[in-house]
Amino acid sequence: MTASSQTQNQKIHDVSSKGYLNPIWAARADKLQSATGLLLGFFIIMHLHFESSILISKEAFYHVGHFLEGGIFSETGHGFPVLTKFISAFMLIVVIIHAAFALRRFPAQIQQWRALRSQMTIMPHQDTKIWFWQLITGFLLFFLAPVHLYDMITNPAIGPHLSAERVYHQDVWMLYVLLLPAVVIHAMFGLYRVAVKWGITTKRMAALKLAKFMVIYLMIIGIASLMTYIVIGQSLELPVTPFVPS
Ligand code: HEM
């Protein structure tokens, strides 16, 4: 083998193993993927809590919505729905950056998929299984998350009745039924992986238990909220009038 073909082979190996020729760029890509993942993971924990205030009452969700829309800064107290558009557009950019850097980890060929599946059968290691589910849920989110964010950019009306109208009368529940488990699994196990990878915790088993607990907990409040929106939506007559607290 000539020196030039050896160099070429080395380059191919480097590109295929790390996704980048330069290890500094590979490290930067890793950091950016983890940083955007952290941001998205914490965002989704906050988001599902804010959004589940509908479980307390319509008034509670109404006030949370207005607070997040900057109600305290507007004279009427009704906030600026345009803020929802900007934050949704920002989150869409974060999702795109996160997905773009994650793409290099996808098994590109059927042989790589087979190798991964057989590795999981021979050595059913828990972290390999988690990584596999990160791949599947990440793939689903690639299609589902932008649909929701585009919806929030073009139709930012939020409120007990307006959200229930979207969920029930505009059939967006079909999107949420898929988006909820995909994002909860992806985000919680993603946070676990980041914590272990960057040495944020050395208690791997405890971190894994916490991630599993959070998946169950967020699924419960997410499903309960979704069902509440559906019940409210069913009780509304069309055209829907926005909820105003008495
Ligand atoms: C700033 C951006 C976002 C805004 C303003 C927003 C707003 C909302 C609102 C108001 C709802 C309640 C139902 C409705 O009105 O349609 C909702 C539900 C939901 N959102 Fe978002 N969202 C944002 C970003 C995201 C992201 C990035 C994800 C995950 C990738 C996400 C996942 C979900 C899920 C799974 C539900 C359904 C929750 C349930 O079943 O209880 N959202 N979102």
From TrEMBL:
* Residues spanning the signal sequence: none
Could you name the domain of life of the organism this protein comes from?
Bacteria
Keyword set, alphabetical order: Heme, Iron, Membrane, Metal-binding, Transmembrane, Transmembrane helix
Localization terms from the record: Membrane
TM regions (residue ranges): 32-50, 82-103, 130-153, 173-192, 213-232
Keyword set includes Iron: yes
Q: What cofactors does the UniProt entry give for this protein? A: heme
InterPro entries registered for this protein in UniProt = Fum_red_B_TM, SQR/QFR_C/D, SuccDH_FuR_B_TM-su
Q: What does this protein do?
A: Membrane-anchoring subunit of succinate dehydrogenase (SDH).
Q: Return the NCBIfam families for the record.
A: PRK13553.1, PRK13554.1
> What is the official name of this protein in its record?
Fumarate reductase cytochrome b subunit
